[in-house]
Amino acid sequence: MKGVVLFLLICFSAVMFPSWVHTQSAPGFHGPGIVAYAGRYFANPSSAEYSSYNEKMSMYVAKRIKEKYAVDLDYKSYSAFELLEIEALLKCKRSDESVKSLLERFQS
Question: Which of 13, 49, 67, 74 is the least crowded, having the fewest Cβ atoms under 10 Å away?
Protein backbone atom coordinates (compact mmCIF):
# COMPACT_ATOMS: atom_id res chain seq x y z
CA MET A 1 0.00 0.00 0.00
CA LYS A 2 2.83 2.39 0.87
CA GLY A 3 4.48 1.59 -2.44
CA VAL A 4 1.33 2.50 -4.40
CA VAL A 5 0.94 5.79 -2.54
CA LEU A 6 4.60 6.65 -3.10
CA PHE A 7 4.33 5.75 -6.79
CA LEU A 8 1.23 7.96 -7.23
CA LEU A 9 2.90 10.82 -5.39
CA ILE A 10 5.95 10.62 -7.65
CA CYS A 11 3.82 10.42 -10.80
CA PHE A 12 1.62 13.33 -9.70
CA SER A 13 4.69 15.45 -8.94
CA ALA A 14 6.31 14.62 -12.28
CA VAL A 15 3.15 15.66 -14.14
CA MET A 16 2.32 18.78 -12.13
CA PHE A 17 5.77 20.27 -11.51
CA PRO A 18 6.61 21.21 -15.15
CA SER A 19 3.25 22.91 -15.61
CA TRP A 20 3.71 24.78 -12.33
CA VAL A 21 7.15 26.01 -13.41
CA HIS A 22 5.74 27.16 -16.75
CA THR A 23 3.07 29.31 -15.07
CA GLN A 24 5.49 31.06 -12.72
CA SER A 25 6.65 34.57 -13.56
CA ALA A 26 10.23 35.56 -14.13
CA PRO A 27 12.09 36.16 -10.86
CA GLY A 28 11.39 39.55 -9.35
CA PHE A 29 8.53 40.50 -11.64
CA HIS A 30 4.79 40.46 -11.10
CA GLY A 31 2.37 38.97 -13.60
CA PRO A 32 3.13 36.38 -16.22
CA GLY A 33 6.62 37.70 -16.97
CA ILE A 34 8.66 36.49 -19.91
CA VAL A 35 7.05 33.05 -19.87
CA ALA A 36 3.86 34.60 -21.24
CA TYR A 37 5.68 35.19 -24.53
CA ALA A 38 6.89 31.60 -24.95
CA GLY A 39 6.17 30.30 -28.44
CA ARG A 40 4.80 33.59 -29.76
CA TYR A 41 5.70 35.19 -33.05
CA PHE A 42 5.59 38.92 -33.63
CA ALA A 43 4.41 40.58 -36.83
CA ASN A 44 7.21 43.16 -36.75
CA PRO A 45 9.54 44.89 -34.29
CA SER A 46 7.31 47.95 -34.12
CA SER A 47 4.29 46.03 -32.83
CA ALA A 48 3.11 46.74 -29.28
CA GLU A 49 3.47 43.09 -28.22
CA TYR A 50 7.10 42.99 -29.36
CA SER A 51 7.87 46.23 -27.51
CA SER A 52 6.36 44.77 -24.36
CA TYR A 53 8.34 41.54 -24.79
CA ASN A 54 11.57 43.44 -25.46
CA GLU A 55 11.10 45.56 -22.35
CA LYS A 56 10.40 42.58 -20.06
CA MET A 57 13.25 40.58 -21.54
CA SER A 58 15.62 43.55 -21.20
CA MET A 59 14.63 43.99 -17.55
CA TYR A 60 15.18 40.29 -16.88
CA VAL A 61 18.58 40.09 -18.58
CA ALA A 62 19.81 43.37 -17.01
CA LYS A 63 18.85 42.04 -13.58
CA ARG A 64 20.63 38.75 -14.28
CA ILE A 65 23.79 40.63 -15.41
CA LYS A 66 23.70 42.75 -12.25
CA GLU A 67 23.36 39.68 -10.01
CA LYS A 68 25.94 37.55 -11.80
CA TYR A 69 28.60 40.07 -12.88
CA ALA A 70 27.88 43.12 -10.62
CA VAL A 71 27.49 45.34 -13.69
CA ASP A 72 24.52 47.68 -13.45
CA LEU A 73 23.10 48.39 -16.92
CA ASP A 74 20.08 50.53 -17.78
CA TYR A 75 17.70 48.12 -19.52
CA LYS A 76 16.13 51.02 -21.47
CA SER A 77 19.43 51.85 -23.16
CA TYR A 78 19.88 48.42 -24.73
CA SER A 79 17.65 45.98 -26.58
CA ALA A 80 17.13 42.52 -25.16
CA PHE A 81 19.39 41.03 -27.81
CA GLU A 82 22.16 43.54 -27.06
CA LEU A 83 21.94 42.65 -23.37
CA LEU A 84 22.16 38.94 -24.21
CA GLU A 85 25.27 39.66 -26.28
CA ILE A 86 26.75 41.74 -23.44
CA GLU A 87 26.08 38.88 -21.04
CA ALA A 88 27.88 36.46 -23.36
CA LEU A 89 30.84 38.85 -23.66
CA LEU A 90 31.02 39.22 -19.88
CA LYS A 91 31.00 35.45 -19.52
CA CYS A 92 33.96 35.14 -21.91
CA LYS A 93 35.80 38.29 -20.77
CA ARG A 94 39.51 38.00 -20.13
CA SER A 95 40.70 39.08 -16.69
CA ASP A 96 42.79 41.92 -18.16
CA GLU A 97 39.86 43.25 -20.22
CA SER A 98 37.72 46.05 -18.79
CA VAL A 99 33.92 46.05 -18.80
CA LYS A 100 34.00 49.53 -20.32
CA SER A 101 35.86 48.25 -23.38
CA LEU A 102 33.18 45.57 -23.88
CA LEU A 103 30.36 48.10 -23.65
CA GLU A 104 31.94 50.60 -26.08
CA ARG A 105 30.67 48.77 -29.15
CA PHE A 106 27.07 49.14 -27.93
CA GLN A 107 27.22 52.91 -27.46
CA SER A 108 25.49 54.90 -30.19
Answer: 74
Which run of H or E residues covers position 21?
helix 2-23
How many other CB atoms are found less than 10 A from the CB of residue 103? 17
Number of domains in the chain: 1
Contact yes or no for 87/108 (Cβ under 8 A): no
Task: Determine the structural domain holding residue 95 and report its residue range.
Answer: 2-106
23/36 Cα distance (integer angstroms): 8
Question: What is the per-residue pLDDT across 45-89, written as a single tens digit (0 to 9) for each?
Answer: 888 888 999 999 999 999 999 999 999 999 999 999 999 999 999
